[in-house]
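pinned: reference chain
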Amino acid sequence: MIAVLKRGVTSEQKDNLCNWFESMGLSVNISEGDYHTIIGLIGDTSKVDIELLEGLSIIESVKRISEPYKKANRKFHEDPTIVDVSGVKIGGGNFQIIAGPCSVESEEQCLSIATSVRASGATLLRGGAFKPRTSPYDFQGLHAQGLQLLEEAKAKTGLPIVSEIMNINDIELFQNVDLIQVGARNMQNFDLLRELGKLNKPILLKRGLANTLKELLMSAEYIMAGGNENVILCERGIRTFETYTRNTLDLSAVPALHELTHLPVVVDPSHASGISRFVERMAMAAAAAGADGLMIEVHNDPEHALCDGAQSVTPAQFDRIAQKVRKILDAAND
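pinned: its structure tokens
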């Protein structure tokens, strides 16, 4: 349930109202907008007398919310959330590009790619240290050493770093990671999501390859319910009957999520297509669809990459993509 307050309500009136709600065992979520203050009620709201509530002089309107996700719901929070990742803002008109290798392989490789993508306009550096692979025989990442190499690249380029966590036991290793990524396979690892909810650190939550938007938002709710509301959603393609591409990029998810939630939405065209020559067009389409950012895999030698070389673009290709995306954004903002 949400209660919209009239303009001019005093802090004392608002506090008294919230205390009344809390006395009924309800959790209260307050969203201060430019024109309205919205109080979201979480819990058993059946005990709230709507007619009594609507009769209060400070109440403009009351609505029951049927969706099970409350904190992620735009109805509770009309204004878009802007997530600050170590000074880089995402959402609310702040478009960012996250770029880097699928997997960190060496100091030279990581720093070379970081330097090139930064020069082309990327504002965050991605790199996998722990890699979930379908085959147990594939390269699984450098683990703690990979995170250390990312930190060294950050120190030299100034780019905040993004890396994927797979296990609750590794959380301490991610203290210096600016944006922790939850991969598609772990989107419904609820124990992990609960632990991430206890952190004061932004989380990039990827949609599972066979999950609905509602399920994605419910996973975000696990993190937010724990107290961490700095969540960024990522559309990375879903599994359909089509086999020509690795996945099917669901660009309709971008405007749909913007209707459903106040959280930022970024798109990963690399995992979505699995084919590097398609990344440019899909990145442009994502920007036109209203995404708050992109996540693109870049490798300086894709043919010899230890992980996902087929979907990785070269630094030169990334530079061209970044330029074209900026043109799309300029046109969309006119």
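why pinned: The mean pLDDT is 94. DSSP finds ten helices and 14 strands in the chain.
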